[in-house]
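ok, trying the design again with the full structure, not the truncated one.
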């Protein structure tokens, strides 16, 4: 019998009120049933939200550096449990263990970073325009934060939201993806074991209904979401109606430009990792390669050779370089986009099919796939596939490269390989994206740097680094008038 897991609500581990569960299966081998997880509904969210609200006053009154101590312990515990969590993560979402260890490492780094920020959380002191008056801004927590995350980074991405939220004195309701509930649970256990007060962290497992209920609940003040642009837009609209804060991290169609004179060995390594790492299932994945005509044929030829050699398999096997897609829908979607690309007239240069073989069983494996001769108006040039599919364009100038790179509704990450200092500095300004890499692929954000995107990728916020604290705090402006008389701003200064 597989284990039946529970929510953590109001300080106790409990089943969904309905008793319903969702099966969690291994995408590399679907008869491996990992466990059953609560299929929660609005009633469970209601209990969690009330409890999170009740816990808020004590938690925000705890001196921030004391909150930081707990987060530092959480970092230590994550480090101790890194291998265990990574293996659980690989089993439920497929990416190889070297990647899932990186995922946990990102959370460790975020924990230590958030812990140290609790000794800063700076406000500002600013001169007043009037005598004997003191002006400053201070930060306050927002309240109860609902955190809704995806399965592709089951610990790292929740950590970017939950740890700064807690550091700033908010309480949190965490809904992991229903595709990666076990990693979500282990992350919540680390936080509780480290000493986060039970009411300050509620874990509510389930599908979209949980996110919906959090968005609608009057006691939830803020929603932080990672997922598709469509769902994000819906959440933003619902939060807008209710005057809730909302921070969104959504899709990408991230370009890598390779200019003439670039180091092709470096670009080759970068594009193979950027396009096929995590089986292309990153919002930062390199899904478009924009190649100068002088290097196009050589680079594409070498990518094909390299990608063909990638070892596809279960992420728990030591030699696996590329794991499965997450589920049958992802496999169907990727297959459909290969058909679409062919119908649109692009050339299928590599792959294009579900990968099969003795060792692959019924897992959701897909071959590394490359389309060449892609035109910007094609759907494979515009739409996020979230699979191992690279669309290649050939260009003849820097200007054309930038035009193509920006010709998308998304704007998360971008990259340029060049040894030309003008092109690299111009690209930093010209590329419409939240992140630009020079001589690196589009993936690989560091935990202490702002992360997020423009256009349909985001709504103006940046997680990660110091900017996460702008999401999870409100600024309060304070004026202290010690003149002993009524001083009228704008009037007493301009007589
Ligand atoms: C995501 O795919 O949602 O920069 C996040 C990267 C990772 C994070 C990806 N550190 O590719």
């Amino acid at each position: 019998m597989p284990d039946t897991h529970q929510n953590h609500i109001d300080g106790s581990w409990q089943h969904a009120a309905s008793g319903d569960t969702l099966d969690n299966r291994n995408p590399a081998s679907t008869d491996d049933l990992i466990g059953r997880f609560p299929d929660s509904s609005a009633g469970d969210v209601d209990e969690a939200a009330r409890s999170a609200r009740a816990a808020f006053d004590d938690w925000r009154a705890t001196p921030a550096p004391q909150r930081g101590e707990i987060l530092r312990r959480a970092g230590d515990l994550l480090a101790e449990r890194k291998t265990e969590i990574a293996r659980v993560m690989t089993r439920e979402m497929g990416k190889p263990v070297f990647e899932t260890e990186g995922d946990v490492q990102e959370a460790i780094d975020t924990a230590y970073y958030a812990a140290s920020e609790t000794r800063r959380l700076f406000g500002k002191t600013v001169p007043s325009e009037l005598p004997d008056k003191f002006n400053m801004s201070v930060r306050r927590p927002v309240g109860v934060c609902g955190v809704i995350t995806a399965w592709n980074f089951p610990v790292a991405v929740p950590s970017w939201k939950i740890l700064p939220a807690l550091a700033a004195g908010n309480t949190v309701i965490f809904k992991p993806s229903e595709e990666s509930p076990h990693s979500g649970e282990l992350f919540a256990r680390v936080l509780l074991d480290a000493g986060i007060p039970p009411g300050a962290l509620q874990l509510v497992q389930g599908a979209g209904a949980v996110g919906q209920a959090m968005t609608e609940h009057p006691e939830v003040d803020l929603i932080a979401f990672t997922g598709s642009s469509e769902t994000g837009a819906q959440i933003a609209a619902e939060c807008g109606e209710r005057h809730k804060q909302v921070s969104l991290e959504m899709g990408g169609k991230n370009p890598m430009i390779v200019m003439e004179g670039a180091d092709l060995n470096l670009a080759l390594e970068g594009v193979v990792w950027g396009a096929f790492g995590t089986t292309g299932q990153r919002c930062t994945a390199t899904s478009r390669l924009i190649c100068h005509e002088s290097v196009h044929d050589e680079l594409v030829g070498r990518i094909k050779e390299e990608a063909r050699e990638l070892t596809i398999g279960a992420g728990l096997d030591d030699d696996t370089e590329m794991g499965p897609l997450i589920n049958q829908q992802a496999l169907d979607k990727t297959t459909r986009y290969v058909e679409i690309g062919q119908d649109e007239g692009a050339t299928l240069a590599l792959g294009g099919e579900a990968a099969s073989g003795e060792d692959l069983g019924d897992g959701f494996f897909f071959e590394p796939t490359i389309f060449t001769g892609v035109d910007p108006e094609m759907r494979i040039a515009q739409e996020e596939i979230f699979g191992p599919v690279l669309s290649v364009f050939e260009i003849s100038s820097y200007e054309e490269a930038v035009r193509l790179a920006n010709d998308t509704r998304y704007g998360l990450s971008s990259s340029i390989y060049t040894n030309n200092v003008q092109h690299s500095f111009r690209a930093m300004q010209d590329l419409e994206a939240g992140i630009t890499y020079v001589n690196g692929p589009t993936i690989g954000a560091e935990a202490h740097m702002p992360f997020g995107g423009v256009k349909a990728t985001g709504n103006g916020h940046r997680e990660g680094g110091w900017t996460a604290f702008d999401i999870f705090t409100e600024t309060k402006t304070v004026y202290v008038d010690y003149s002993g008389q009524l001083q009228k701003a704008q009037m007493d200064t301009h007589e």
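Keeping the full-length input from now on. The chain has two domains: 3-250+458-478, 254-438.
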